[in-house]
Write a structure and sequence with these properties.
single chain; about 170 residues; elongated; about 55% helix
C-alpha cells in the first residue's frame, strides 16, 4: 500500500467496520455480534501465544545455525499484527487478522517485503561458535591485550576539587 493511501485507509476503515457491525447485527442479533467480537479478541490472544512461541523457537534455531532469521522475524511481526487485528473490534479487521495467521499468506507478504527488509547483525561477528569454513583447529580471534590488575596495582586517591567528588569542597 502506498503511503499516500494510508490516511484514506485509516479514515475509511472505521466506517467499514461500523457498516460490518450493522450488517452482522441485523443477521445474527446484537448479543451474537458482541459474542463474536469478544470471541475474536480471545482467539487473537490465544493464537498470538501459540504461534508466537513457535516463531521464537524458529528464529533461535535459524540464528544458532548461522542462517538468515529475516523470514522468521517478518513472520513473527505479521503474527503480532494479525493478533492486533483480531483483538480490534470489527469483522473486517478480523478477516485481515485471520488471513495473516495463514502461513501461505505470510509467505506471499514475505516475497513482497523481502527486498525492503534488512536484518542487521547477520555478520560473522554476531554469530556464535565457529566461523563458517573454519575447521575444528580454528583459534579464537585476538581482540587485544588483556591487563589483569590486583587491588594493590590500581589505587586512586579522591580529588577533593573534582565536581564528581563525593566530598564537599571547603572553598564553596
Amino acid at each position: 500500500m502506498r503511503l499516500s493511501l494510508l490516511p484514506i485507509f485509516v479514515f475509511l476503515m472505521p466506517l467499514a467496520e461500523i457498516a460490518g457491525f450493522i450488517v452482522v447485527g441485523k443477521m445474527v442479533g446484537v448479543w451474537a455480534t458482541l459474542g463474536l467480537v469478544i470471541l475474536s479478541a480471545v482467539l487473537g490472544a490465544a493464537l498470538l501465544r501459540i504461534q508466537g512461541i513457535g516463531i521464537l523457537q524458529r528464529i533461535s534455531s535459524e540464528s544458532r545455525n548461522g542462517g538468515d532469521p529475516g523470514r522468521e522475524m517478518v513472520h513473527g511481526a505479521m503474527i503480532v499484527i494479525a493478533a492486533f487485528f483480531l483483538m480490534l473490534p470489527g469483522f473486517i479487521s478480523d478477516i485481515i487478522g485471520l488471513l495473516l495467521f495463514i502461513p501461505a499468506v505470510r509467505d506471499i507478504a514475505w516475497k513482497i517485503l523481502r527486498n525492503r527488509i534488512v536484518v542487521v547483525g547477520n555478520s560473522p561477528a554476531f554469530r556464535r561458535g565457529q566461523q563458517p569454513g573454519a575447521g575444528p583447529q580454528a583459534q579464537p580471534r585476538n581482540t587485544g591485550t588483556v591487563v589483569d590488575l590486583d587491588e594493590t596495582d590500581f589505587h586512586r586517591e579522591p580529588k577533593r576539587n573534582s565536581p564528581w567528588s563525593d566530598q564537599k569542597r571547603l572553598e564553596d
